[in-house]
Write a structure and sequence with these properties.
Order of helices and strands: HHHHHHHH
Number of strands: 0
Pfam family, one: Ribonuclease_3
Oligomer: single chain
Mean pLDDT: 92
Helix content: over 70%
Strand content: under 5%
Subunit structure: Homodimer.
CATH class: Mainly Alpha
Radius of gyration: 15 Å
GO molecular function: ribonuclease III activity; rRNA binding
Protein name: Mini-ribonuclease 3
Number of helices: 8
Shape: globular
CATH superfamily: Ribonuclease III domain
Main location: cytoplasm
CATH architecture: Orthogonal Bundle
Largest sheet: none
Length: about 140
């Protein structure tokens, strides 16, 4: 199914609805990268995926994208909408980490709805590169 909404249509969705979709978009990209990086048992694939889809890692990615100044003005607004939404953080992350992760997921959901797949690939690649050496070490374990 291909979705191609206008920015106005996508902005009609709540930040948490966008994050709901963006979480699955981001996780699918993580799973694809892991699978293509190494053929290994499913439990190890899952463990590696969890290390990349957790709030702590996603928060680091969100901060990295902001520090590098790669987000457009519109993308920054979408990210902030998600980040500033009231959420209850799980016990394993801080509220700041969880909010940043929600902002990142919101952005990925928004980009997906507006069919900006190339932009998703660019931003995801920057996220993936963050900690890639550590990831490669985990694959060897």
């Amino acid at each position: 199914m291909h979705i191609d909404m206008t920015e106005r249509e996508a902005n009609q969705y709540s930040p948490l609805a966008l994050a709901f979709l963006g979480d699955s978009v981001y996780e699918q990209l993580v799973r694809e990268r892991i699978l293509l990086a190494a053929n290994m048992p499913a439990h190890k694939l899952h463990k590696l995926a969890v290390s990349r889809v957790c709030a702590e890692y996603q928060s680091e990615c969100a901060l990295l994208l902001q520090e590098q100044g790669v987000l457009t003005e519109n993308e920054t607004e979408v990210f902030k909408r998600g980040r500033n939404t009231k959420v209850n953080a799980p016990k394993h992350s801080t509220i700041a980490e969880y909010r940043n992760a929600t902002g990142l997921e919101c952005l990925f959901g928004y980009l997906y709805l507006t069919a900006q797949h190339e932009r998703i690939d660019v931003l995801f690649s920057l996220c993936w590169e963050h900690g890639e050496d550590e990831f490669n070490e985990k694959i060897k374990e």
